[in-house]
Amino acid sequence: MNKITLHKGKEKAAWQLHPWVFSGAIKNVDGTPTNGTVVKVFNIDKEFIAYGVYNAHSRVAVRLLEWDPEHPIDEIWWRNRIRRALELRTHLLTDQNNTVRLVFAEADFLPGLIVDKYGDFLSLQVHSSGIEAVKNIIVDELVQLVQPKGIYERSDLNARQHEGLRDTNGLLYGDMPPEFVEVVENGIRYQVNIIEGQKSGFYCDQRDNRLLAAQYVSGKRVLDCFCYSGGFTLNAFKMGASSIVSVDSSALAIETLNKNIILNGFDATMLTAVQADVNKYLRQLGEKEEKFDVIILDPPKYAPSRSALDKAARAYKDLNRRALLLLESGGLLATFSCSGAMDMDTFKQVIAWSALDAGKEIQFIRQFNQPEDHPIRASFPEGEYLKGLLIRVV
């Protein structure tokens, strides 16, 4: 087996079970491993550290998988990891919820693999060459364990470019998903577009937060920004919001939202669905001096890396400032960031600046996090990406 030796002093993170070895930490490579090949990683004193998957194309040159030398990375290892990830989530699948993230990459010791369950179908994303090399094994194990109607791949990600991989979308097993697959989350029915929808088709990482935020909307006028297919909107309907304005720039999102309103039998006359750029729309609402009781901001990732954090902070600040201007005393803002590069303390500071610029005094009354099917591995804090705050204007 090919061997990787790390520079002296560069092995600390690997010993501490962090799964990434950057190219600059490598002293030498024994052999000629191709991208996706399993290698052994050693320190300068030739002590075994871990098994990993090598990729000369990527800045993350080795993705570590296993620290026990007695557990080599073979087909059985991959199958056992898939099985364990699914076992830890079985209790989340009920008649009130049939959409769950079954595999969450590094958190499940499967770096580069995302698997989401949407009713009878699975949506799969491959971010790394190591997973690409064993994709057939993974699909076979998923078929045996889940017995889905179909497995569809949505590997159209920037991360694949860094791994030297081309984008690939298509059916991996079984039946092609229909244009809309019906799923249930928190007892609410959704039409999910696996093939053309954002990411893998749906954002099940907000499942708990949708339910929590909805506890505050009874009898309130709600503005749901970046609404996508209506997760927060539909929960607000269920919990008795008096009226809801839902905004997204995507025509498909608005179309899907309207389908979901009808699917659940909610009163469509209570909804104003708007296809628009959210920032521009918030500016227009401010010019009209519109006011809301509850506002939800769930924007896309503004900071894909730490180098983009300053620019992202300005974008979050401006977005939240515009929202706060639409709230009177007692109004609530549920605001989120899915940027892993922005930690909670930084996010709070950005929101504080937003409030200062808006001339509002605020209180943080709740924090939101990602749900248990998106766990955060202790040795991989980078897996904590979703954060949110419930803010009250004083």
Automatic annotation (TrEMBL):
Gene3D superfamilies associated with the record: PUA domain, RNA methyltransferase domain (HRMD) like, Vaccinia Virus protein VP39
Keyword entries, A-Z: Cytoplasm, Methyltransferase, S-adenosyl-L-methionine, Transferase
Main location: cytoplasm
Domain S-adenosylmethionine-dependent methyltransferase as annotated: residue spans: 173-375
SUPFAM superfamilies according to UniProt: PUA domain-like, S-adenosyl-L-methionine-dependent methyltransferases
Listed PROSITE patterns: PUA
Residue ranges constituting the RlmI-like PUA domain according to the UniProt record: 4-67
GO molecular function: methyltransferase activity
Pfam families, per database record: Methyltrans_SAM (PF10672), PUA_3 (PF17785)
Source organism of this protein record: Sphingobacterium arenae
Family statement: Belongs to the methyltransferase superfamily. RlmI family.
Subcellular location: Cytoplasm
One BP term from GO: methylation
Cited InterPro entries: PUA-like_sf, PUA_sf, RlmI-like_PUA, SAM-dep_methyl-trfase, SAM-dependent_MTases_sf
Full protein name: Class I SAM-dependent rRNA methyltransferase
Upper taxonomic lineage: Bacteria, Pseudomonadati, Bacteroidota, Sphingobacteriia, Sphingobacteriales
Keyword Aminoacyl-tRNA synthetase: no
PANTHER family in alphabetical order: RIBOSOMAL RNA LARGE SUBUNIT METHYLTRANSFERASE, S-ADENOSYLMETHIONINE-DEPENDENT METHYLTRANSFERASE DOMAIN-CONTAINING PROTEIN
